[in-house]
Amino acid sequence: MSSVQPIVIEARGLHKVYGVKQAPIVALNDISFTVEEGSFVSLVGPSGCGKSTLLQMLAGLVPITTGEVLVDGVVLRQPAPEKISVMFQDATLLPWKRVAENVEFPLEIRGMRATERRDRAAEMLSLVGLADFAQRYPHELSGGMRQRVSIARALAPDPRIMLMDEPFGALDEQTRIKMGHELLRIWEKTRKTIFFITHSLTEALFLADVVLVMSHRPGQIVGTIKADLPRPRTYEIIGSAAFGVTRNRIWKLISQDDGDAGSEGMASL
Amino acid sequence: MRALRRGLIIVVILGAWEAVRRFNLVGPLLLASPTEIIDALVKSWFDYVIALRLTAFEIAVALAFAWTLGIATGTIAGLRPFLAATTGPLLSSLFAVPLISWYPLFMVWFGLGINSKIAYAIVSGFFPVAINTMNGIRAVDRQYFLLGKALGCSRRQIVFRILLPMAMPTIVSGLRIGTALVVIGVIVAEMLGSLGGIGYLISYYRSIYATPHVYLGILFALGVALVANGGLGLVERRFTHWRVMQIQQ
Q: Which segments of chain B have a pLDDT < 70?
């Protein structure tokens, strides 16, 4: 169904090496993959495998040791805010600004006029269902609501790509599931290309068209799994046989180089 | 009702104070009664106005420098982890030295006029502002720095639009200490070696045993400190109101 879409992100042989020449630490080893326009790609892997570093490379935020990132076929050398929005584990809202002002912030940086900015922020806030909270301060909102403001802020400049670094990782499970649904709803409406990092296998599979599986030491892609699951997705799909089989495949890929793939691990998220 | 009770308490305290002197329970060298102090004010109010103007001017100039230099130095140090690691302990240990022991040198370097007093007060107030600013900047989560970069902010925008406002609560507590030290610095410097200002009057009248004037000088010094603190309160409300709301939650 998405086989004819153009490639928007291409990672070509990315390496990240830290430390001095005598004792280099290879954090990321030869990472290559492509992301199709309008698709939802998850990257799942154990903590400390370099997922965040990889995402920061895709955003042009950290230097790449060797290899290159292409966005729309052009080598990325610095952040590209007009194309790419980044979301972090914390909502990273500016606590002295009201919710609407936070959503306006990226537009303000780009020099958009105040009236235009206000309209755009209002539109984004109603998209994420927070129109009534525009004049509140971040600390008056719950964790899930703050991440929704963060989504609205990321969408405000109308980027083509959203890079999300475990955005729901700090939320409790129920909120997290709701946020997953919410994100899919917004994605289906806006059709952004989403690159989503998580360490939750269930979350990765539930959201994505394609799941990239990473292992650690050194961080590398050990498999690319197509999630052949129908959309729109509902929570029930997680209990389906197809979901379970695919999730187990992901788990096997992650755990094969650890040698500790037990039944205990199978049951975990 | 409450105001009435408070007023009553003040009247009682002032009355007791006056009585202690009237019945000579404490000698005139140790304590001046409220009426004696008022008397001193009525007689030489003009001297105090002149002195107050000088002291206020010195404090204002010293505050402007201590705040600006402190925030600038702290920001630069906070932005560079290596610089912070090396200068942090240095700043803290310099701050720990009793600064007053340097005052004779300040007089030699800057003379007996207002320059030595202002310079001394700037140095007094500088360190806590610089140290707190540095710590405040360093405490901002790295994600905010990345956010700024990802949004295409210039380095300047990252510092002024994101990092400094984030660090403001910590900076303001540094300003609080720094401001108190500037006020103390100016008045102490005036007492130690100068020919003007509230501190000089206190010191001068003490040397001629004019106790009511000493008390009056102390009251003026107190007033100056209160005004400086009030100004700081305005700054605090302007820049850290969100923090206060966060805490109250």
A: 95, 244-249
Q: Measured between beta carbons, which residues in chain A are less than 8 angstroms from residue B163?
A: none
In a domain, A226, yes or no: yes
pTM of the model: 0.84
Q: How many helices (H) and strands (E) does chain A have?
A: 8, 10
The CA distance from A95 to the nearest CA of chain B, in Å, is: 7
CATH of the domain at A69: 3.40.50.300
Task: Give the separation between CA A253 and CA A238, rounded to whole angstroms.
Answer: 19
Is the domain of A60 the same as that of A8?
Answer: yes
- Determine the 3-state secondary structure of A222 from DSSP: strand
Beta-carbon contacts below 8 Å between A and B: 56
**Interchain contact, A96 vs B241, CB within 8 Å:** yes
Domains: count for chain B: 1
Q: Which chain B residues have a beta carbon less than 8 Å from that of A110?
A: 152
Element (H, E) at A245: helix A241-255
- 10 Å Cβ neighbour count for B19? 11
Q: A53-100, pLDDT tens digit by residue?
A: 999 999 999 999 999 999 998 899 899 999 999 999 999 999 999 999
ipTM of the complex: 0.89
B150–A86: do the CB atoms touch at under 8 Å? yes
Distance, CA of B161 to CA of A57 (rounded, Å): 24
Show the domain range for A102.
Answer: 93-158
Q: Which of A79, A109, A139 sits opposite B246 (nearest CB)?
A: A139
- In chain B, DSSP finds a helix count (H) and a strand count (E) of 10, 0
Give the H or E element holding residue A141. Answer: none
Question: Is A89 near chain B, with CB under 8 Å?
Answer: yes
Residue A112's identity, in one-letter code, is: M
| A164 close to B (CB below 8 A) | no
* Residue A174 falls inside a structural domain: yes
A30 located within any domain: no
Inter-chain residue contact B151 with A106, CB threshold 8 Å: yes
Is the CB of residue A68 less than 8 Å from the CB of residue A74? Answer: no
B-facing residues of A in 1-60 (CB < 8 A) are: 56, 59
Positive or negative torsion for Cα A107, A113, A114, A117: negative
pLDDT at A110: 92
Nearest CA-CA distance, residue B151 and chain A, Å: 5
**A233-238 mean pLDDT:** 87
